[in-house]
Amino acid sequence: MTSIGTGYDLSNSVFSPDGRNFQVEYAAKAVENGGTAIGLRCQDGVVLAVEKLVMSKLLVESSNRRISTVDRHIGIAFSGLIPDGRAFVNRARDQAAQWRRNFQSPMPISSIADDMGGLAQAYTLYSSVRPFGITAIIGGVDEDGKPGLYMIEPSGLYWGYYGAATGKGRQAAKAEIEKLDLANITIREAVKHAARIIHSAHEDSKDKEFQIEMTWVGKEETGGRHQVVPKELQEEAERLAKKALEGEDDDEDEEKEKMEE
């Protein structure tokens, strides 16, 4: 991806001769260095979860949130540059509030994904700005109870997903998500899967302490409101996740011993 000496990476309003926008690629690289974030769309709602690395023991646990409520029924999780994520969330909140003023109803998940995807794309057009250094996962439940999940990349590209992953451990997380039958599991079950997936994706950074930030929204479980997963349920999910990983480690050790024999 190197472009040293070409000059085509000095502005995001210029394409290279082979049609690349290096500023967008650099923004995507910033996302790859961030903690893993996932979203799971289930039969009755959406679960968002983020691997939050502990940068300092002096930090207040709740002061560095990477999942935010945009409207009562919508949440956004992101990976990448935290200040960019906060600015992105604030713009999303403005869009949701404006929709409520204009139409006297909550904003559909697809509409806010479309608006924020357009905003991200606009930030790739002008030399006076730079692309957002985040990938955002937007999840929520519409008025009819139908869940929606979208992932928006720095280029402005977005798709609807049953399961989405971004950040440093996205490949490992994606592999685990693909094993799930998301259309037939509840969000309560998805919370346990999400904790296991985040722990599994963190395996490459075992030497670093981390916390899991997790929220959910469902018509039945939360009354259609985006909320933090109850502490008791999250603690149980993390306990089961650690137990599952320890079991996998034991199986790997047994296989190695058999091979040595």
UniProtKB/TrEMBL annotation:
Can you tell me which residues the record assigns to a coiled coil? none
Give one Pfam hit by family name. Answer: Proteasome
Keyword list, A-Z: Cytoplasm, Nucleus, Proteasome
Q: Name one GO biological process term.
A: ubiquitin-dependent protein catabolic process
SMART domains (alphabetical):
Proteasome_A_N
- Enumerate the InterPro entries for this protein: Ntn_hydrolases_N, Proteasome_alpha, Proteasome_alpha-type, Proteasome_asu_N, Proteasome_sua/b
Example of a GO cellular component annotation carried by this entry:
proteasome core complex, alpha-subunit complex
Indicate whether Cytoplasm appears among the record's keywords.
Answer: yes
Region of interest: Disordered:
239-261
Compartments where found: Cytoplasm; Nucleus
Q: Does the keyword Mitochondrion apply?
A: no
Cross-referenced Gene3D superfamilies, in alphabetical order? Glutamine Phosphoribosylpyrophosphate, subunit 1, domain 1
The Proteasome alpha-type subunits domain is annotated at 8-30
Q: How does it assemble?
A: The 26S proteasome consists of a 20S proteasome core and two 19S regulatory subunits.
UniProt family annotation = Belongs to the peptidase T1A family.
Q: What does this protein do?
A: The proteasome is a multicatalytic proteinase complex which is characterized by its ability to cleave peptides with Arg, Phe, Tyr, Leu, and Glu adjacent to the leaving group at neutral or slightly basic pH. The proteasome has an ATP-dependent proteolytic activity.
Protein known as: Proteasome subunit alpha type
